[in-house]
Write a structure and sequence with these properties.
This protein is of the alpha+beta class. It has a domain at 281-408: Neutral Protease, domain 2, CATH 1.10.390. It is built from 9 helices and 20 strands. It has helices spanning 206-209, 212-223, 258-273, 290-308, 312-330, 344-361, 363-377, 384-395, 400-408; strands at residues 11-23, 28-39, 43-49, 54-60, 63-64, 68-70, 73-80, 86-94, 113-116, 122-125, 146-152, 158-161, 175-178, 181-186, 192-197, 231-235, 241-242, 248-250, 281-283, 380-382. The chain has a 6-stranded mixed sheet, with no helix packed on it. The protein has a 5-stranded mixed sheet with strand order 14-15-16-18-17, covered by helices on one side. Strands 9-10-13-12 form a 4-stranded antiparallel sheet, with no helix packed on it. Helix 5 (312-330) crosses helix 6 (344-361), helix 6 (344-361) packs across helix 7 and helix 7 (363-377) packs across helix 8. The chain is globular and about 65 Å long. GO terms for molecular function: alanyl aminopeptidase activity; metallopeptidase activity; zinc ion binding. Belongs to the peptidase M1 family. Its EC number is 3.4.11.2. One of its GO terms (biological process) is proteolysis.
């Protein structure tokens, strides 16, 4: 594990029920979080990630209990027996604060978690963690749970979240509170789309968001059917973007030049690509982040090729240039440093590996492989070994040397 201090592998959270209340004038969050938990190993306590808020009440299976918050953990004494689920209910309140993440990326400066906004709203970005700032969570990428979230806000305010019929890890949950208006749209084969925007603030972004049906149709042509029941985007106050499940989180650019408009469209495409790679099929650990970022980055490049007309030789040159520099600076994508979470190497070097695999297989076989990978592993967690085994089984050829070289080599493979 890259981050053993976060998450509890001894617990499998099955379902979260969150009943929350947000007071914009005080930036105060209060509510009750109910978690249905399946113990994996015997234990004498429930330990979940939680920080910055005051615990008011705790029950375990309806009986009063005590809860202690220390060093980013909520600890509740309880007798846990493997495969005998328990129900933990926690009442709490406070003003949430974002927490840091180990990264040198520019967007890491704003932190992760639930962030109160200057106007009284709030929004989340939470990779590799951050859910712990607004409810007790098991911050493991491998622990997917179902969610039922209700948020009470004053008149004129809207709380937007992404309840899903499919399980999701904590980092893919989103919450945004603002003076939102929903804009409805329809995607491929009648897919319901919603764009949550603030009138006035987001008017310039809406024409790009309205390209979603086109983007999703193109992705389906390569990857097969969109893997969820709904899609869309919510615009928040971040400088970044996030592949939050079924409802991608898009920040507000500081400028809106022609170049920035293209970047925003590319980013939207990237986050939608994650619905197949990262959301439907999720890495088992953060060490395999290339399994979603490399794939989404490669699809972003393929979309740029379609829109801007550059050829494969140009893409090869661009990827190898990025790859050589990033391996020197950050190391190979299959062995990411815990101090540099989501560095550019897992994006660009992962995409370079997929370009080589695409070249080796040809387009028809490569995209058939991509479609089959998602269809055969939907709503699961997977790792490098599983991907290599699947490539071998699907193609009847051993490409492990190619894949491992591009994931592990300190220099760009020939």
């Amino acid at each position: 594990m890259l981050y053993p201090e976060h998450g509890n592998p001894g617990l499998d959270v099955l379902h979260h029920t969150l009943r929350l209340d947000w007071k914009p004038d005080q930036k105060l969050l209060s509510g009750t979080a109910v978690a249905r938990i399946r113990p994996v190993v015997p234990a004498t306590e429930i330990s979940l990630d939680f920080t910055g808020l005051t615990v008011d009440t705790v029950t375990v299976d309806g009986r009063p209990a005590t809860g202690t918050v220390r060093n980013g953990k909520l600890t509740v004494p309880a007798t846990l027996v493997p495969d005998q689920p328990v129900t933990l209910a926690v009442g709490y309140h406070g003003v949430p604060e974002q927490i840091s993440r180990p990264s040198r990326r520019g967007d890491a400066k704003e932190g992760v978690g639930l962030r109160p906004a200057a106007n009284g709203g709030a929004w989340t970005m939470q990779e590799p963690w951050g859910a712990m700032t607004w409810y007790p969570a098991n911050e493991l990428i491998s622990d997917k749970a179902l969610y039922d979230i209700t948020v009470t806000v004053p008149p004129g305010w809207t709380a937007v979240t992404n309840d899903s019929a499919a399980p999701m890890p904590a980092y893919l949950v989103t919450l945004a509170i603002d003076h939102y208006t929903p804009v409805r749209d329809t995607g491929p084969h009648g897919l319901p789309l919603t764009y949550w925007v603030v009138p006035g603030a987001d008017d310039k972004l809406l024409p790009v968001l309205r390209k979603s049906p086109e983007l999703l149709t193109w992705l389906e042509s390569l990857l097969g059917p969109y893997p969820f029941e709904t899609a869309g985007a919510v615009v928040n106050g971040s400088v970044s973007a996030m592949e939050t499940q079924q409802l991608v989180s898009m920040g507000r650019p500081l400028s809106w030049s022609v170049l920035e408009q293209k970047r925003y469209e590319d980013t939207l495409l990237h986050e939608y690509a994650h619905q197949w790679f990262g959301d439907a099929v999720t890495p088992t650990t953060w060490a395999d982040l290339w399994l979603n970022e490399g794939f989404a980055q490669y699809l972003e490049y393929k979309y740029q090729q379609k829109k801007r007309g550059y050829d494969d030789a140009t893409l090869e040159q661009v990827l190898r240039s990025y790859d050589a520099r990033l391996r020197r600076e950050l190391g190979p994508p299959g062995k990411p440093s815990p101090a540099d979470f989501a560095g550019s190497n897992v994006y660009q070097c992962g995409a370079a590996m997929l370009k080589e695999l695409n070249d080796a297989l040809g387009d028809d076989r490569f995209w058939s492989l991509m479609r089959a990978w998602v269809a055969g592993h939907r709503y699961t967690n997977q790792d490098r070994a599983a991907f290599i085994a699947f490539v071998t089984a699907h193609t009847g050829e051993d490409h492990s040397k190619l894949i491992n070289a591009w994931l592990d080599s300190p220099t760009t493979p020939e």
